[in-house]
């Protein structure tokens, strides 16, 4: 069996950036289940947040992030995020990411719930693509080994510590094993759980399911962000219309042409995402429509074509000139705030197992992510992970991270007797309809028993689609059970039967496979 110091699972920003730093300390393998550039990172449009502007400061960025997180951010983690941002941005620039500049200065834009312009972008609205392609090119020309079309299917644990990973070679169907000192999950979120989603089809909760099965803790998984403005054109796959478009002055109108956001909240179009997404849902209901419109026709056409060239071209290629016509939009699944629980060094409670990027729950997002903080979180905590493990390699130190108290297990449920056939579209519809933007106890209960029934009849996975379905069902169960437990509304989690935030719920729901409680103490 081959053995490496580091094995990275995933090749988005978190996997690639970690690998590029880790190669300075030991041997590195990246396993990725598609091609190297298949990931969510490449779709990121708006950019990456960092307090670099002259009117900005880490303190201001800290305050905005804490406010968006609605009482559940870990202040220590947020402090790290904002203080260590500039150092990681410098790395990205050194690796060659071409951030947009004007007169030699990086240009910054503003997004919802940021108090000042602080979002750095590349290629206008093609930030993620530039980051992904720049880093993957670097990786290819380094000593890092990359195995594409290889899906990690099981974490190998020996005496409570990770010893390696089992993976499926999707091209040949063979199952292989590889040993390592540090296994790093950088597998992204769970966006494919929902019928309407902005996410790449590789984003199927694999890291969460793998970690849970290996005994790691999963925290805050009920908090999933829905993006308010995703293109809704018949026959066209959901395509994100970046928040930065509203940041530049885009206005939301209902199907009758009336601006509606000021009716709901003073910040109007620049309110936090959960509020905008729910307002859009209510407005669609009121007007019996499946969409609203984003109006940018008052903005200078030159601003639109230069600042948002990708969005402009995509819409134009589908018959819509956004400088003249309204953009039909509706909410869609977007980003997972919770995930595999880690400390500020990326360590899970399982020795040798780490998580970074969207699959990790560092505590920086709390109940709601501030726009453009996720790319930043990926690099800041990846760098810390490499600092920690690099010193372990040098000293042969063997640390054992501590476990949480008040853990929950997945409850046993009587599976529903009559359930729809289990397939991906049915799972995605169930999650969209029952565990989506507006939730209720009754609908969550219904979803929970269907999911339990589906899980009880899942065959042993054998190929990529069956592994992905297995991982999605497990992630869906964790999300639904957590949403049921959380009898309040906070951040992105909204329940009609408990519409307010409650002080007694200012705490986290953490699942672990071998926990003895079914609900948090
Ligand atoms: C449309 C869109 C726009 C966005 N815009 C922004 C933005 O402007 N700013 C911002 O900060 N954030 C944005 N985000 C969020 C951000 O892009 C993601 O949170 C971030 O890119 C996640 O990076 P990652 O490396 O953790 O995961 P990803 O980039 O999703 O990569 C996951 C990787 O894991 C691999 N993988 C998964 N499972 C397995 C397995 N079992 N075995 C092997 N490999 C596996 C995948 O193939 C992939 O390579 C956006 C997201 C989307 C979808």
Describe this structure in words.
This protein is of the alpha/beta class and 521 residues long. Strands 1, 2, 8, 9, 10, 11 and 19 form a seven-stranded mixed β-sheet that branches. The chain has a five-stranded mixed β-sheet with strand order 20-18-12-22-21, with helices on one face. Strands 14-13-17-16-15 form a five-stranded antiparallel β-sheet. It starts with a strand and ends in a 10-residue tail after the last strand. The chain has helices spanning 13-22, 58-68, 75-83, 85-95, 127-140, 206-213, 243-247, 261-264, 273-286, 301-307, 309-317, 373-395, 424-434, 441-456, 464-485, and strands at residues 3-9, 28-31, 48-49, 101-102, 105-106, 108-109, 119-120, 145-147, 150-158, 161-169, 175-185, 218-219, 224-231, 239-240, 251-253, 292-295, 327-336, 339-341, 353-355, 360-361, 407-408, 510-511. The model has no long low-confidence stretch (mean pLDDT 95). The longest helix is centred in the last third of the chain and has 23 residues, at 373-395. The chain is globular and about 65 Å long. Residues 9-15, 31-34, 38-41, 43-48, 127-128, 151-152, 186-188, 198-199, 202-203, 206, 240, 335, 357-359, 372-375, 378 line the site of flavin-adenine dinucleotide.
């Amino acid at each position: 069996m081959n053995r490496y110091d580091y094995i990275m699972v995933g090749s988005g920003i978190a996997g690639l950036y970690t690998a590029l730093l880790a190669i300075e300390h030991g041997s590195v393998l990246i396993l990725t289940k598609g091609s190297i550039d298949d990931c969510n990172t490449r779709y990121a449009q708006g950019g990456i947040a960092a307090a670099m502007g002259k009117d900005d400061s880490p303190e201001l960025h800290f305050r905005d992030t804490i406010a968006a997180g609605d009482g559940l951010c870990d202040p220590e983690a947020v402090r790290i995020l904002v203080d260590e941002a500039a150092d990681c941005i410098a790395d990205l620039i050194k690796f060659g990411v071409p951030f947009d500049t004007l007169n030699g200065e990086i240009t910054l834009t503003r997004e919802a719930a940021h108090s000042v312009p602080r979002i750095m972008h590349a290629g206008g609205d093609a930030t993620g693509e530039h980051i992904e392609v720049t880093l993957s090119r670097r990786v290819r020309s380094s000593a890092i080994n990359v195995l594409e079309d290889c899906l990690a299917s099981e974490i190998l644990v020996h005496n409570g510590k990770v010893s390696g990973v089992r993976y499926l070679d999707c091209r040949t169907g063979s199952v292989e094993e590889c040993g390592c000192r540090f296994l790093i999950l950088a597998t992204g979120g769970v966006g494919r759980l929902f019928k309407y989603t902005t996410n790449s089809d590789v984003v199927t909760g694999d890291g969460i399911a793998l970690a849970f099965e290996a005994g790691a803790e999963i925290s805050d998984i009920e908090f999933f962000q829905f993006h308010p403005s995703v293109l809704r054109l018949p026959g066209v796959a959901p395509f994100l219309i970046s928040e930065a478009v509203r940041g530049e002055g885009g206005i939301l109108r209902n199907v009758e042409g009336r601006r509606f956001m000021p009716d709901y909240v003073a910040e109007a179009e620049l309110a936090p995402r959960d509020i905008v997404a729910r307002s859009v849902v209510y407005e669609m209901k009121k007007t019996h429509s499946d969409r609203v419109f984003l109006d940018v026709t008052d903005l200078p056409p030159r601003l639109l074509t230069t600042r948002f060239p990708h969005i402009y071209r995509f819409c134009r290629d589908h018959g819509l000139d956004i400088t003249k016509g309204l953009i039909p939009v509706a909410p869609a699944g977007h980003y997972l705030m919770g995930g595999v629980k880690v400390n500020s060094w990326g360590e899970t409670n399982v020795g040798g197992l780490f998580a970074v990027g969207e699959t990790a729950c560092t505590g920086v997002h709390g109940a709601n992510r501030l726009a453009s903080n996720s790319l930043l979180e990926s690099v800041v905590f990846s760098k810390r992970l490499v600092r920690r493990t690099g010193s372990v390699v040098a000293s042969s130190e063997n640390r054992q991270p501590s476990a949480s108290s008040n853990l929950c297990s997945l409850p046993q449920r009587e599976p529903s007797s009559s359930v729809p056939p289990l397939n991906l579209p049915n799972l995605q519809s169930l999650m969209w309809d029952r565990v989506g933007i507006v939730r209720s106890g009754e609908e969550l209960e219904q979803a929970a028993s269907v999911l339990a029934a589906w899980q009880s009849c899942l065959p042993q996975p054998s190929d990529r689609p069956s592994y992905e379905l297995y991982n999605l069902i497990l992630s869906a169960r964790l999300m639904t059970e957590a949403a049921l437990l959380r009898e309040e509304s906070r951040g992105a989690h909204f329940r009609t039967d408990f519409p307010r935030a409650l002080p007694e719920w200012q705490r986290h729901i953490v699942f672990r496979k071998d926990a003895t409680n079914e609900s948090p103490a």
